[in-house]
Amino acid sequence: MPTPFTHLETAQHLLVDDAVPADVRAALAAERGAFLLGNIAADARTGGGINREDTHFYQYDRPLVDHPWRVMLNQHPSMKPPRSAAHRAFIAGYTAHLSIDEWWSLQMLGPHFALREWAPRPTRFFYLHILLILMDERDRNRLESWQYPALLMAQPESWTPFLSDTILRDWRDFVGEQIRPGGESQTLAVFGGRINKTPADLRAILDSAATLEAELWPHISPALLEEIETGMYHHARAQMLRYWMED
C-alpha cells in the first residue's frame, strides 16, 4: 500500500484543491495537524502490534462489501458524530487514507500484481515494493515545510477506539522525525525488513534506470501508474467529501 509520505502528499493536495468546497478546505486547514495524522494513522499498526484488518477494515482475500471508511464507522459508532473539529478533521483524513488504499488494492495490487503472471509471484511482489518506494521518494520530496510542525501539533484525544492515543502519538513522532528539516527517511529500512533486502540492495535497484526499464516498466508502465494514481486521488477526494457531508 502507498506509504505515509504518499498519504501526506495527498493530504497536502486536498487542502488546496478547488474541487473541495472552500468551507471544507478552511475547516481542514484550521485543524491541519489532525488532518495530517488522520491521513497516516491507519498504518500506525506497524508500531502497535495491531492486525491490518483492525485499522484498514478489509482483507486482501475477501471481497469488499462496502467502502472501508463506512465499515470503520459502522463497527465503531463511538466515532460518530465527531466530538470536536479536530476529531472531524482526523476522521476525514482517515477516510482519505482508507480510500487511497481501497483504490490501490482494487485497481493496482489485485489486477496487476496478484492476478497478472508477468513474473514469478515473489518477483512481482518485490517490484511492488520497488514501485511503492519510487512513489514514496517522489512524494516525500513534494512535502512542504509546514507539514512537520503541523503534524506535531496533532493531539489525539481518544479519536479511535482501536488505536490508542499513545500509539497515534508515537506514529506521529516517528513519521514527523522523517519529514523534519534534515530528517532521514526510514522507508528503505522498513521495506527492506519486509522483503529481506538491505537498504543498499534496494538503493542499487532504485538508482538503476536499466534495471527498472527491464524489470518493472514493461509490466507496470509509467502511464498505467499515472492513470491509477489519478483515479486513486479522485476516489479519495470523493469519499472524504461523502464522509464530510454525511457527518
The rough form would be described as: globular
Mean pLDDT: 96
Radius of gyration: 18 Å
* N-to-C CA distance: 27 Å
* Topology, number of strands: 0
Helix content: 55-70%
SSE sequence, one letter per element: HHHHHHHHHHHHH
Walkthrough of the structure:
With 247 residues, this protein is mainly α. The chain has one domain (4-246). 67% of the residues lie in helices and 0% in strands. The chain has helices at 4-14, 22-30, 32-41, 52-56, 68-75, 85-114, 121-142, 147-153, 165-179, 187-195, 199-206, 209-215, 222-246.
Summarize this structure as a short list of keywords or feature phrases.
mainly alpha; 247 residues
Break the fold down into its secondary structure elements and pairings:
Layout: H1 4-14, H2 22-30, H3 32-41, H4 52-56, H5 68-75, H6 85-114, H7 121-142, H8 147-153, H9 165-179, H10 187-195, H11 199-206, H12 209-215, H13 222-246
Quick structural overview:
This protein is mostly helical and 247 residues long.
